[in-house]
Amino acid sequence: xxxxxxxxxxxxxxxxxxxxxxxxxxxxxxxxxxxxxxxxxxxxxxxxxxxxxxxxxxxxxxxxxxxxxxxxxxxxxxxxxxxxxxxxxxxxxxxxxxxxxxxxxxxxxxxxxxxxxxxxxxxxxxxxxxxxxxxxxxxxxxxxxxxxxxxxxxxxxxxxxxxxxxxxxxxxxxxxxxxxxxxxxxxxxxxxxxxxxxxxxxxxxxxxxxxxxxxxxxxxxxxxxxxx
Length: 228
Prior knowledge:
Layout: H1 2-19, H2 21-63, H3 84-101, H4 106-122, H5 125-136, H6 141-157, H7 161-173, H8 181-195, H9 197-210, H10 215-226
């Protein structure tokens, strides 16, 4: 009975295919197209990721190139820059291009963050702030935290101490791998050293006691000794 049922089902299916041959062929063609598009999209994405990674590496090579001191002879075959600002300017052009061209890739997102940093080194405050804010809005919490830390430093440089404190307090309350709570608290204490020394001491003491085994706790202990 079961065998007869299978045979009947197979015959029924073959009959349907014979009667609806054009529909079946269309279905197969559409399925093949969908699969081809899917595979092509994956390969294209992987290719763009690879291109972006190579471009990011080249930009980082510029950003990490040595700066020569006045009167210092450049080593043959080694790319050097006469100043940090000149180096930042050269790297910034590459980072901005990469962020614009490959903004959806991981390398492109990282490039936008470094574009913000290099804008800071170039003294272009408005461009730095706009670029870092765009990075801070990113869903990657580690990259966002780095951008917010840079924004806090930018606020301090421009006398916006209150804004810097708000950002650092937020970072301390929501620590990430890239910006641990201790790092944010150290920078908070550094601000308060001049405006509210007792509060700075309180922050250092807390770090010293609770994070004694971390670099932040050890730095806090040193800072606390210096303030006595």
